[in-house]
Amino acid sequence: MGKRITIAIQRKGRLFENSKNLLIKSGINFTTNGEKLLARSSNMNVDILLVRDDDIPSLVSKGVADLGIVGQNVLAEQSTSNRKITAKAILDLGFSKCRLAFAKPSNSKLRSLKNKTIATSYPGLVKNYLRKNSINAEIIKINGSVELTPYIGIADCICDLISSGATLEANNLIEFKSLMNSEAVLISSSNIKNISDINIIELVKRFEGVINAAESKYVMLNADTNSIKQICKLLPGADSPTIIPLQQKNKVAIHALCSEPVFWETMEKLKQNGASSILVMPVEKILN
Ligand code: ATP
Ligand code: ZN
Questions:
Q1: Which CATH superfamily is domain 5-95+184-213 in?
Q2: pLDDT tens digits along 52-66
Q3: Which CATH superfamily is domain 98-182 in?
Q4: Which atom of ligand 1 is nearest the CA belonging to 54?
Q5: What is the chain's Cα-based Rg?
Q6: Which pTM was predicted?
């Protein structure tokens, strides 16, 4: 038993459910009741800190937590304005995908950001963007309901997080420029190469195994021996499929771990190329 590992995750909000599932799928059992700040794993040497997402970069930078799960957007914004935020993203987690983008009212004639007023919760990132593009504009920092600011006359446009675009649409706003893409990331106080604690390294490997598995599918199908080559070519991201002879002459079963999504279109193409009984199955864990 090494020293306890502390992981900071969002207590409630858009990141919570997926963060919790990632820990649980990685073998860390724990329960939360929405109130507690600290949950202690019942089966591993791990403590889970349940906090606001905004606090996660600094908790990890200070070493209060060894690892944290936060949006790249929050880590990037805080890193622009605070030199004490030294936490690094060590693994992309594939959930809470969104983009930070500029949007304007759909009836606005705005053509460039020049000399405009931009409302945002991400003043550091917007400022860097303006500086990089030599644009002179005013930024007002707003913490919530940024999408309303153009209508109360305090901003010409906004820069905010967008995922499906439904919020924009509901507020009659249209996106006109994307500043950055974001997703949830695992963060640590140092680069992955400099992590010396073997228990942390093992845990990060487990996270990686869960993330990789989420994108992977196990595909099984039957085919004629003469279509093997063509079918294997169609299997997305399959390393080396297993070919098993079937009782029926000139027939084989092909099994493959596909590391890329298997869409209906792929399955239909497989069928057109002689595959039958095509099964696509979820993969729970992968250890490479
Ligand atoms: P907290 O109370 O923890 O401070 P919050 O209100 O700041 O929560 P949430 O709205 O729960 O944060 O969003 C957390 C993260 O989810 C965002 O920082 C971003 O990385 C991601 N996210 C994904 N899609 C969206 C979206 N459409 N709007 C806002 N955040 C999104
Ligand atoms: Zn927040």
A1: Periplasmic binding protein-like II (3.40.190.10)
A2: 999 999 999 999 999
A3: Periplasmic binding protein-like II (3.40.190.10)
A4: 4
A5: 24
A6: 0.90
